[in-house]
Amino acid sequence: MKGILVSVEADVSSGLPGVAMVGSLSPAVKEAQDRVRTALKNSGFQLLAKKITVNLSPANIRKDGTGYDVAIALAILCGYGVIDGEALSDTVFVGELGLDGEIKPVNGVMPIVECAADSGFRRCFLPAANVKEGTAIRGIRIAGVSTLRELVECLDGTREPAYCEWEEEVWEEETYPVDFREVSGQLLLRRATEVAVAGMHNILYVGAAGTGKTMVARRIPTIMPSMTMEEALEVSKIYSICGLIPSGQTMIHRRPFRSPHHAVTAQALIGGGRIPRPGEISLSSHGVLFLDELTEFPSHILDLMRQPLEEKRVTVARVGGSYEFPADCMLAAAMNPCKCGFYPDRTRCRCTESQVRQYLGKISKPFLDRIDICVEAAPVTYTEMQGGGEGESSARIRERVERARRIQLERLRPIGKHFNAQMKRAEIRDYCALGVREESYMEQIYERMHLSPRGCERLLKVARTIADLEGSPKIKKAHLSEAAGYRSLEEKLWGGKQ
């Protein structure tokens, strides 16, 4: 996810007065000529009526948004000789202009500043409201300005730019209003969730309404380790593009937890648009994407997620170019086993076998193949419900998860990966090697559960995570047995070859 520098140049010459703008521009950019012309006049710049031609290059890249206004205004002033061109060298300008000359904030500042720093620019002028966000990037000087007149004064030397120096990010202690201690019973769900988080495995909760599926899923962030600076920077760039970084905040500190409604469009979930923007799956990077009431999501939208879940990125191709966004998230989903929600309890379930099959058939086998753990939420007894608030706390579970994460990081660092879920076939062969007894047992599981090679690999990755939670250097039969148990419900409900 890299920015592209756009060079703005203006030619001022004799001819029929007017402004012509070229360079593959969207309507929002074309409208800049009126905003810029009015902003210049209201900022005190009385310019002679001339023919002005503005070019934004590279011309083969579609330009969208209002962030080019300031650069266009400065290019025009440079063409009139108001500003010396040398004052604009090694400098990037970003901002939208109001009709009174005010410089307004824009989205996507962080990737822009990063691109400028990587390209060797020494300073960047940003809207005052975007300065905090821009200082997250090191290697470039950031100055904030509020008006066009103020910016021109900074460039001609009559005013000293107010540079904002980079400050080391202060990470506040993460606190949550919820805790796993509040979950009544559901020991299987709690354990499966711990395993899923430890290895960043995708998990599916199946059970009747009110059994605690959503309750458990919404507590996943409480047991996830804090983000590293590298992860926080990547997440923050995504949120910067979408304009979702809170005002006055430099970066996103907490792991995202996104829970879109089942009426979400494919574009909003996956990403896209005429000018592509990140979707919910990208906004969930390094965090959790929770799909509640999974069967209510249109089947074609769920199937669109298969590739991003596998490759951990979204690629959107357009005529004007290709756009790539991260999608390195943990998927958590919840659903009922049938329309009424009570299957396979035939004492309460009123659905026919055909209706059950039809309901479950909304989830395709290829999508299920991206799920590592499928676990059933059993009904909670009265005794368990009364014992709510006495379970193991999120803090204690988080300690075990962090310990398992450290083991994975140490093992996978040579190949540039962090979690067991990221391993491919070659790494699985190297890091999930089985002993003679375990190999024989794995063969039995493979035949009995009718696993595909992909299903087998996912089972081994989960077993590796279980071993890491236990601190075991080798995968044992018990680890394989537990991992197989997390796929048995899938076989029970959907059957057939996975």
CATH architecture of the largest domain: 3-Layer(aba) Sandwich
Strand tally, please? Answer: 18
Q: Specify the CATH class of the largest domain.
A: Alpha Beta
CA-atom Rg in angstroms = 28 Å
**Mean pLDDT, all residues:** 90
Task: Describe this protein's structure.
- The chain is an alpha/beta fold.
- The chain has two domains: 7-164, Ribosomal Protein S5, domain 2, CATH 3.30.230; 180-414, 3-Layer(aba) Sandwich (Rossmann fold).
- The chain is built from 21 helices and 18 strands.
- The protein has helices at residues 27-30, 32-42, 69-79, 109-118, 131-134, 148-156, 187-199, 213-217, 229-241, 266-270, 280-283, 299-304, 306-311, 353-360, 365-368, 382-386, 394-412, 425-431, 436-448, 453-470, 477-494; strands at 7-13, 18-22, 51-57, 91-93, 96-97, 103-104, 123-127, 141-145, 163-164, 203-207, 257-258, 271-272, 277-278, 288-291, 313-318, 321-326, 330-335, 373-377.
- It has a five-stranded parallel sheet. It has a four-stranded mixed sheet with strand order 4-7-8-9, with helices on both faces. The chain has a three-stranded mixed sheet with strand order 1-3-2.
- α2 (32-42) packs across α3, α7 (187-199) runs parallel beside α17 and α20 crosses α21.
- The protein is elongated, with a radius of gyration of 28 Å.
- The mean pLDDT is 90.
Short précis:
The chain has 498 residues and is an alpha/beta fold.
Give me the secondary-structure topology.
Blueprint (H helix, E strand, L loop, with lengths): L6 E7 L4 E5 L4 H4 L1 H11 L8 E7 L11 H11 L11 E3 L2 E2 L5 E2 L4 H10 L4 E5 L3 H4 L6 E5 L2 H9 L6 E2 L22 H13 L3 E5 L5 H5 L11 H13 L15 E2 L7 H5 E2 L4 E2 L1 H4 L4 E4 L7 H6 L1 H6 L1 E6 L2 E6 L3 E6 L17 H8 L4 H4 L4 E5 L4 H5 L7 H19 L12 H7 L4 H13 L4 H18 L6 H18 L4
Parallel strand pairs: 2-3, 4-7, 7-8, 10-17, 10-18, 11-14, 14-17
Antiparallel strand pairs: 1-3, 5-6, 8-9, 12-13, 15-16
